[in-house]
Design goal:
The chain has about 450 residues and is α/β, with parallel strands linked by helices. It has three domains: about 90 residues; about 190 residues, Spore Coat Polysaccharide Biosynthesis Protein SpsA, Chain A (Alpha-Beta Complex); about 90 residues, 2,3-Dihydroxybiphenyl 1,2-Dioxygenase, domain 1 (Roll). It has 14 helices and 16 strands.
Amino acid sequence: MVKILFDFRVLLLLAAGAFIYIQMRLFATQSRYADRLAAAVESENSCTNQFRLLIDQISMQQGQIVALEEERNRLKEESGELKALVQDFERKGVLKQIDKIQVPVAAVVIMACNRADYLERTIKSVLKYQKSVASKYPLFVSQDGSNPDVKSKALSYDQLTYMQHLDFELVKTEHPGEIIAYYKIARHYKWALDELFYKHNFSRVIILEDDMEIAPDFFNYFEAAAALLDKDKSIMAVSSWNDNGQRQFVHDPYALYRSDFFPGLGWMLTRSIWDELSPKWPKAYWDDWLRLKKNNKGRQFIRPEVCRTYNFGEHGSSMGQFFKQYLEPIKLNDVQVDWKSMDLSYLMEGEYIKHFAKVVERAKPVYGTDFMLKVYNIDGDVRIKYNNQQDFERIAGMFGIFEEWKDGIPRTAYKGVVVFRYQTSRRVFLVGPDSLKQLGVEDA
């Protein structure tokens, strides 16, 4: 009996243990499913929130689209109103008052220092012809130093902008006997051109000096020349000056030439050229420096036969050098040439050498020591050959033209050829030893 009771208790304990084990497993399983269910509910809530956020964003974007569409319609309506208003202004001539924005052809700067009377004469000459084209050619006066009369004179004109260059740095000349003024002039030129190109952002600048008068077609000439500068990168600058432009040596106001020699005295250059020149600008004698082939890189210059500037400055830093012989007799053009209507394509690099070669080839060769008499008795153009610099100076001296050379180039020369008129419309070509070969012309 006791044994049966014992067996029953053991079985009961085993059954209880099994029940407890089963309950524990059920509890563990329920816990896992509860965790998964909670995670699923949380994920569902997150998805619901994201979906609602997406719906809100779409609704907001739709609102923006509607707003943009309304703005587009409003702008379209305003554009139509403005167009109608402009058309109404055009009918009433109001646009003639406001005009379209005029992009300047070039700034014009008058370089001045201490000659107030000269400056006034120059300003009056420029304003006489600049008034009608003032928007194309903004006028500046750049003064070097603090001369009160010059500053007062410049500021008395509302039609121009005054600039002042104050340089207190001590000048040290590189060679004994050099004139300090030339160092100051070089500094002034660099400062003024840097101001106009980089501060005022002009694409071209025309440089005048305070002892110049200009011709009636001065601005028309430079506007036509600006197109040449833009098209032909072999042109370094355009000048309004001819060194051999004395009355007895010129005839045709329509004639233009290319030259290997920098003329200066009223000239225009572009910003791209100045970008190249500014960093290496010389301490002095900038014009002679610019005439060297290593500095102008063999590029050429455009010059007229008849000058578009007249230099009346007998007194100045050059001490009146050459004034009576070469400057005072200069012929200032008095013909109103419409340059913009003329075809100047013959001045382009590839065309000009062919054009000039034909002209030189047609000229009659003159030989012998009595060539002056022979030239006088020939109606058409003539050419005279020189053998070297000394020979050129001798012949040039006989005619009375400039004898000076720079870096192996006579003044006004192209491929060594110097051309001028002699007594009539006859042209005289002084031809260098290699000129005909460079031009592709056979020596007769």
